[in-house]
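User: Hi! I'm working on a homework problem where we have to compare a predicted structure to a textbook description. Could you give me the structure for the chain below?
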Amino acid sequence: MLASPQRRGELAALLVVLGVLVLLPIGRSSELPVLVAALVGLGLLVRYRSSLLSDAGLRLILILFACYWLPIVFSGFAAVAPAKTWMTALETLRFLPLAVFVAWALRRAEVWPAVHVSIAAICGLWLVDAWIQYLTGNSLGGAPEAERLAGIFGAGNLKLGPVLATLAPFLLLVARERTGRLGLLLAFVALLIPILLAGSRAAWLSYALVCVVFAWRETRDFRRFLPLLIGVLLGVAFSIGMAWRGSAGFGARIERSLLALQGTSAAIDDASAGRLSIWQTAYAMIRAHPLTGVGARGFRYDYPQHAAPGDRFVDARTGVGASHAHQVVLEVLSETGLVGFLFWTLGVTVAIRAWRRARPAQRARAFAPGLALVAMCFPLNTHLAFYSAWWGLFFWWLLALFTAALAAAAQQADGDAANHRGGADQHAP
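Assistant: Happy to help. Predicted structure tokens:
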């Protein structure tokens, strides 16, 4: 039997949502499904403008977007590179209709199992490609980088580790639900080696956080959690030892990290690949521009003004420095100042409050994207730039999934709203 027009429309909308993720490794091609989603999202915003504040799902999207976007706008008035900051403010406007489209596309609870499985499948394909590159030296993205696995992203775009670590909750969750604890264990190992060999130490920490959360989810009791955690740590230690022996590039990353044990500033800076210098410069920027920062994406332009003499990241030819602060709190404070920090704090508070108020079925839908966001934004780590075009899009794609899972329209399928909402939720975002 042919699917109804409504079902075909839902499938097409789901494909657009997933298309953003599928095309992420291929340059800026992911902007094509974003454009489609944004245009439809704009139409939805216009159509349902009267319910923007009364609908809890739309209200959550609007609040979180305001907490992200308004700091960019405020930082533009005193930006060191006004054109760059105002262009960033203009470009990031697309995230609002994108999130509205995702909320509309995933408004029925029945589609969420397919969403989780599809994202896990995409992540799994990238994982298989990374294993093939490790074993044969080739992948869909070509040969690996000299010291790291690059997988489908390619040697010129070393984002395999951070992306796999961020998406790990989807693959682990589906493996646990479909194949039990044995599947969860196999998925954990399958992810571990490529993430380690991708060479991003930030990804190692993100994946460790995800694994700790899943270990607690399996036990819910400290007496059982501790032995499981010790077992996981032993497995990780064994994998590190095998990778160290089998990969010269991975060994070099570990040896560089161990330099931090020397305790000197120079050793810590070398161990962190120069991050210490960047963070010290970011702190100087914050002191010089405390209220609204240097302007979103203006970090590199103001960097030479605050860097120490001989800073390795200052390019004498172009007159710019490091592209961003490599740490989310420092990025927000240096580029958007105290105003941005307060808005981001408000956004985090609102998101946590929405999670705590959600029903069990909503939390089950939001668990994977929520944990992915925690792994991505965990403040005791280093990060890519959240105001950049690529990482910012990935961040907002996950945030859109999270808000969609907690959206008011999705509550209808959980039970008690169906009787008096009628068919309105088939159309409203």
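For your comparison, note the following. The CA atoms of residues 386 and 392 lie 5 Å apart. Residues 160-197 form the longest helix (38 residues). Good luck with the assignment!
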